[in-house]
Amino acid sequence: MFMFPLRLFIMLCLMLYAPYGVSARTSDLPMRRSQPTSLTIMADSSLTVPLNLIARTYALEHDVSISTVFFPSNEQIQQISDGEDANIFITARTAWMEEAQQKGLIDVYSRVHLARNQLVLVASTQHTQVLPSSPSTEDILAMMQHNGNFILALGSANTSAEGHYALQALRYYGWDRSFEPNYHFLRNIPQLASMITSNDVLGIIFRSDVPLYPNLKEVFHFAPESHRPITYEAAVIAGDDMEEARVFLSYLQSHYAQRIFARFGLEPV
């Protein structure tokens, strides 16, 4: 589990992405709340950059303190169940949201879809080989053996949404039988990114993960039909400050928030 120092992180992000010209319009934003409060958002790490940017704007507009926490959703559910202070839960796997609902941890009527992600094959920026637009199994294997490292780095399907969808895509293309002996499962995406860059191997992650790791580059986009839709679902966690949490959840669906998501490769639902 890790928690970002929101103000410093977002100031850096705003500087980096200022050329994109994203700005909030007053008409897009809910009215300011009269009572200052604090919110904790538990979300998938693939939303780190866009969610922190959105949270920063909301906090400034509404005089609210927002903390964002990013670690595997199944662990978040356990933390919430154990009484961890949190207000909104966001996950890229419906099964994990269903588990949270079955355990009575969320407001059932607050469940909403926020955005969709894409699945990409990535390599180290030092990798020189290029794949054709419609690669064959042999093309991928040739790229994998470029430096003698027959490894395909994947997130564990038990702890990583990326790994769950990656296995679906590999089956769709018929690559699973050829590549399965080369699978190397990692618990989370930071570990996966480190494996790719330090060993010059291939890996599969979400498109919105890529900006977090400047030493990674996209080499292939998996077709949307190769896996179930990667849809982020959010819900208010049962407990304190549910009213403020509902306001922020509505804000995440605003035109402004959707434009921020789009800047990082996420699609509207």
Q: Helix-strand pattern, N to C?
A: EHEHEHEHEEHEHHEHEEEHH
Question: Using only CA atoms, what is the Rg?
Answer: 19 Å
Provide the low-confidence segments as ranges: 6-10, 14-27, 29-34
SS strand fraction:
15-25%
Mean pLDDT: 87
**CATH-derived topology of the largest domain:** D-Maltodextrin-Binding Protein, domain 2
User: What is the terminal separation in angstroms?
Assistant: 28 Å
Number of discrete helical segments: 10
Q: Which structural class matches the secondary elements?
A: alpha/beta
Summary keywords:
single chain; 269 residues; alpha/beta; D-Maltodextrin-Binding Protein, domain 2; 2 domains; six-stranded mixed sheet; five-stranded mixed sheet; 10 helices; 37% helix
Give a written overview of the molecule.
The protein is an alpha/beta fold and 269 residues long. The chain has 2 domains: 149 residues, Periplasmic binding protein-like II (D-Maltodextrin-Binding Protein, domain 2, 3-Layer(aba) Sandwich), CATH 3.40.190; 103 residues, 3-Layer(aba) Sandwich (D-Maltodextrin-Binding Protein, domain 2). It is built from 10 helices and 11 strands. It has a 6-stranded mixed beta sheet with strand order 1-3-2-4-11-5, sandwiched between helices. Strands 8-7-9-6-10 form a 5-stranded mixed beta sheet, sandwiched between helices. Strand 2, helix 2 and strand 3 form a beta-alpha-beta unit. Helix 1 crosses helix 2 and helix 2 packs antiparallel against helix 10. The longest helix is centred in the N-terminal third of the chain and has 15 residues.
